[in-house]
Amino acid sequence: MTDRKPLGMSYESWIDQQITEAAERGDFDNLPGTGKALPPGADDEDWWFRDYLEREEVSADAALPLPLLLRKEADTLDATVHDLPTEEKVRAAVADLNRRITESWRLPAQPGLFVRKVDPEPVVAGWLATRPAPPPPEEPPAPVPVPWWRRLFTQPG
Fold first, then answer.
1. Where do the record's region annotations for Disordered lie (predicted)?
2. Which of these, 27, 94, 119, 138, could form a disulfide with 22 (CB 3.0-4.6 Å)?
């Protein structure tokens, strides 16, 4: 623990004196990062947050307001529904997004952040355009002709 600051000395000069004495004692020798340049972008006020996201491998989307998250999801909806197997599931995905958009309207949000509902018809049309055309219906096999002798000896009805 350091001594108390003398009464007649300013904080700045007392702190400078403490740092100088610690450097002379070698307290700052062999510290990790000694002599290295500061990382680029360290002057950003959110550097610690960006560093945390990178270190923990977390997406920055978690920090976005809900309307922006929903806008982003609406923008990527075509890619999201691309792998869905049926039109009903595509419509269900659009309905779920529209339900969450409607719920977001009820929550207070920052001014200027508004999300419109997604029209399902263009999404379904885009999904159908990526699907291969259905195979043509197979024609039923032609009836096998019955030989004359079978017609002769079989009873009708």
1. 23-42
2. 27
Q: What is the pTM of this model?
A: 0.56
Compute CA distances 105 → 21, 124, 152, whole Å: 60, 25, 80
- DSSP states along 13-58: HHHHHHHHHHHHHTTTTT-TTTTPPPPTTTTSTTHHHHHHHHHHT-
Instruction: Give Cα separations from 41 to 37, 38, 51, 147 (angstroms).
Output: 12, 9, 10, 90
pLDDT in tens, 31-52: 887 777 776 666 778 778 888 8
Residue type, 136: P
- Unique residue bearing structure tokens 């990790």: 32
What distance in Å separates the CA atoms of residue 98 and residue 120, rounded to the nearest whole number? 9
Q: Where are the domains of the chain?
A: 61-130
